[in-house]
Amino acid sequence: MPDKTVTKIDSDYSPKGQLGQKYLASGKSISMRLWENEQPNKPKEPTAREYETVGYVINGRAELHIEGQNILLEPGNSWVVPKGASHTYKILESFTAVEATSPPAQVHGRDEN
What we know:
It contains no helices and six strands. The protein starts with 21 loop residues before the first strand and ends in an 11-residue tail after the last strand. It has strands at 22-26, 31-38, 52-66, 69-73, 78-81, 87-102.
């Protein structure tokens, strides 16, 4: 009998979070989100989240400010933000990236303030 637990997500209908992220597929222990055409900005106050994040840049450029480091993110780059690490992003040019978070960022308000 084939597995019926596989779910297909159409991002045209995905919900958006307060920070502008679009929620994609989500499982019990991992989820994906899309940051699409984020525009240049000043870095926000650093934050620390209760989940680990890995990301991949599709286009544009941004700086990841994390634990005293400034890391330039460009197309083809990927990164990791460990759970609890103080960090923020500064978008340098229109930026699109996909991230995976574990545990899922949107569960229990983990993705908000």
